[in-house]
Design brief:
There is one protein chain. The protein has twelve helices and 18 strands. It is α+β, with helices and mostly antiparallel strands. The protein folds into three domains: about 1-80; about 80-270, 2-Layer Sandwich (60s Ribosomal Protein L30, Chain: A), CATH 3.30.1330; about 305-360 and about 375-530, no CATH class. The strands form four sheets. It has a six-stranded mixed beta sheet with strand order 1-2-5-3-4-7, with helices on both faces. Helix 7 packs across helix 8. It starts with a helix and ends in a 7-residue tail after the last strand.
Length: about 550
C-alpha cells in the first residue's frame, strides 16, 4: 500500500515539470499550487510509513491519507511564506533587466518535527502569523547571474543598486542569517579564480551591511569554479557559471543544510548537460603549468624509494591491511576503473597529476572575521571531520590535516597542510610545514581519490609535489573497534630535478564508536537513520 500510494502521488508531483517550477519563480500563486502538490506527495509517503509502524496496514492507509492533507497544507503554506519578497525581487528583475532566480524550501531535522510543525500551523488561524511561523523553517535562495565584469571585484553602480534592493527585500522579513556564495567560470588559473570569487562575495556582503545587516549575521564563500552548473566551453555556459547565490535562514545550521543540498543539486544539473560531474574537475581547455615550477637540482627531503614518473595513476581500491600485494598499484589501476556516473568519474577523465589545475573552493567565513564552522558533526562523513592522515618512515613522520568531508562527499577545507618531522619527535613543532590545495574525485567502490598538490614555495622548500590517496568510505560496523587503516597512496616528488613517484601506505586512525550520535544517509528511504558512533582521540 505504501508503494501504491507513493507511486500515485509521485506521478502527480512529477507533472510539476521544470517549466512549471520556473514559472513559479515569477508567479507566487503558481508556486503555492506547486507547493501543495509536492507537499502532498511527500506527506503521503511519510504518513504511510509512520502509520504502518503504529497501526499496521490500517494505520498505513490512515497515515497516508493524513499525510496527504498535512503535506499539502504544509506545501501551500511554505509556497506563500515569502510571497511579498517574491514580488519585490520580480519587480527588481523587471525594472533592472537582470537575470534573477529565486526559490524557497523548508528544512526539518526529521519527520517528527515536520508533523509537530503542521500541528502548530493548524492551531494558528491568523494568516500573517502562519507566514512568520513558516519563515522560521524556510530557507530562501536567490541567484544573480553575471553580476561582475570579467576579472573585476567591483560592483557597477547598477549592480550595486540591484544588490542593495535585494538586501532590503530580504531585510523586510526580518534580519536573518545570510550566506553569500560567489562562483566563477574556468577562464584563467583556478587559484586566481578562487581568490577573485571570495573578493566578489565580500563586495556583495558589504552591500548587505550597508542595508543594515550586522557582519556577524553574514557568511561568505569564494567557491571559484568548483561547482559548475553549465557547459563551461560555451559563452552561454560560462555566463551561467558566473553567479552570486544568496541564502537566508533563521538559523546557521539551516544554511549548512542548504549548502549541502546545493552540492547535490549542482552535480545533478551539470550531469544533465552531459558534463563531468565532480566537485573538482580540470577544465578541458586549460592545463596547469608544470615545467616552470621544477628546479634543476632540487631533491625531496624524505628518502622515498620511487621510480621515474611516466604518467602512472592511482585508481585502485587496494587492500585495507599492510599485507603483500600480488600486483602493483599501477597494475591495479587498469583493473579498477571509476564509473562515469553523476557522482563518479571515469579514470580516463581524471587529470594527470602534474597537469591538474585543482579547482579550490574557499572556506565559509563569517564577515566579522570570527571563526565558526557552520556544519555540525552530523553533516560530516565519519570520521572525516578535521581528521589527519599520516605516514611513517623510520623516525620520519608526516601528516596531512585537517581533512573534512561532508556526507555528500565534498571537501569542506580545500587547503590542508602537510607537516613533516625529520629530526625531532612529534612533541616538537614540525621541521617543515607545507601549504597546498586539495580536491576529491569520487569512485564507485566505496573509495574517494584525495589529491593534494603542494604550492610552488612548498615545492622549493621540500621537493614534494603532492600525493594521491585512496580514502575509504567507512560503514557503521567499521567503528566497532579503534584501529588504523592502511590506505594506498602515490607520492610525487623531485630527485635531482626529475619527477619521481613512490608507491606508499598512508594511515588513517578509525576511532571506536561511543554514545555520540551521528546520522548516516539512508538512500533507500531518502531519510536519515540514527547510528551510534563518535570520534575518539585523534592520533
Amino acid at each position: 500500500m505504501i508503494f501504491l500510494l507513493s507511486i500515485c502521488l509521485i506521478l502527480t508531483s512529477c507533472a510539476t515539470t521544470t517549466q512549471n517550477i520556473q514559472k513559479a519563480n515569477s508567479s507566487p500563486g503558481e508556486k503555492e499550487k506547486i507547493g501543495i502538490i509536492i507537499g502532498a506527495a511527500g506527506g503521503a509517503v511519510a504518513g504511510a510509513v509512520v502509520g504502518k509502524k503504529v497501526g499496521g496496514k490500517k494505520g498505513e492507509i490512515i497515515g497516508a491519507l493524513i499525510g496527504i492533507i498535512a503535506g499539502g497544507f504544509l506545501g501551500q503554506q511554505i509556497g506563500k511564506a515569502f510571497d511579498d519578497r517574491d514580488r519585490r525581487l520580480d519587480e527588481i528583475k523587471r525594472r533592472e533587466g537582470v537575470k534573477i532566480n529565486h526559490y524557497n524550501y523548508a528544512i526539518f531535522k526529521n519527520e517528527k518535527e515536520k508533523f509537530q510543525f503542521v500541528a502548530k500551523l493548524n492551531e494558528t488561524t491568523n494568516e500573517a502569523q502562519r507566514k512568520k511561523i513558516c519563515q522560521v523553517k524556510t530557507v530562501y535562495k536567490t541567484i544573480v547571474f553575471s553580476p561582475f565584469k570579467t576579472g573585476s571585484t567591483h560592483l557597477s553602480p547598477k549592480m550595486h543598486r540591484v544588490f542593495l534592493e535585494i538586501a532590503r527585500a530580504y531585510k523586510a522579513d526580518g534580519i536573518r542569517k545570510v550566506l553569500i556564495i560567489s562562483y566563477t567560470d574556468s577562464q584563467g588559473p583556478a587559484e586566481v579564480n578562487q581568490r577573485l570569487s571570495e573578493e566578489r562575495a565580500k563586495a556583495v556582503a558589504k552591500v548587505f551591511v550597508e542595508a543594515g545587516y550586522p557582519p556577524s549575521n553574514i557568511y561568505i564563500q569564494g567557491a571559484g569554479e568548483s561547482e559548475p552548473i553549465a557547459d563551461d566551453s560555451t559563452p552561454e555556459g560560462r555566463a551561467k557559471n558566473r553567479r552570486i547565490v544568496i541564502y537566508d535562514a533563521s538559523e546557521v545550521w539551516r544554511l549548512a543544510q542548504a549548502k549541502r543540498y546545493s552540492i547535490v543539486e549542482n552535480r545533478a544539473t551539470i550531469s544533465q548537460t552531459k558534463q563531468i560531474s565532480t566537485q573538482h574537475a580540470a577544465a578541458p581547455h586549460r592545463k596547469a603549468k608544470v615545467t616552470a615550477m621544477y628546479l634543476p637540482h632540487c631533491s625531496c627531503i624524505i628518502p622515498f624509494k620511487g621510480t621515474p614518473y611516466h604518467g602512472q595513476r592511482l585508481a585502485t581500491f587496494g587492500s585495507r591491511a599492510p599485507k603483500a600485494r600480488e600486483m602493483s598499484i599501477w597494475e591495479k589501476f587498469k583493473r579498477a576503473l571509476f564509473s562515469p556516473t553523476a557522482q563518479a568519474i571515469a579514470s580516463s577523465t581524471i587529470p594527470d597529476f602534474l597537469r591538474d589545475d585543482i579547482k579550490t573552493s574557499g572556506d565559509i567565513k563569517r564577515l566579522d572575521g570570527r571563526k565558526e564552522d557552520i556544519f555540525q558533526i552530523d553533516d560530516y562523513l565519519p570520521p572525516y571531520r578535521k581528521w589527519p592522515i599520516y605516514y611513517m618512515m623510520g623516525n620520519i613522520f608526516l601528516d596531512i590535516k585537517p581533512i573534512s568531508i561532508l556526507k555528500e562527499k565534498a571537501l569542506v577545507n580545500s587547503h590542508p597542510q602537510m607537516s613533516i618531522w625529520i629530526h625531532h619527535g612529534r612533541a616538537q613543532p614540525p621541521d617543515v610545514r607545507l601549504n597546498g590545495a586539495a580536491c576529491l574525485y569520487l569512485g564507485n567502490n566505496n573509495k574517494m581519490l584525495f589529491r593534494w598538490k603542494a604550492s610552488r614555495a612548498s615545492i622549493k622548500r621540500s621537493g614534494i609535489l603532492g600525493v594521491d590517496i585512496l580514502l575509504p568510505i567507512f560503514q557503521e560496523n567499521d567503528f566497532q573497534n579503534a584501529h588504523d587503516e592502511y590506505i594506498d597512496a602515490l607520492v610525487y616528488y623531485l630527485k635531482n630535478g626529475r619527477v619521481f613517484v613512490a608507491e606508499e601506505k598512508f594511515i588513517i586512525h578509525v576511532p571506536k564508536r561511543s554514545n555520540i550520535r551521528w546520522r548516516v544517509k539512508d538512500d533507500k528511504r531518502s531519510s536519515y537513520k540514527v547510528a551510534e558512533a563518535c570520534w575518539g582521540r585523534r592520533p
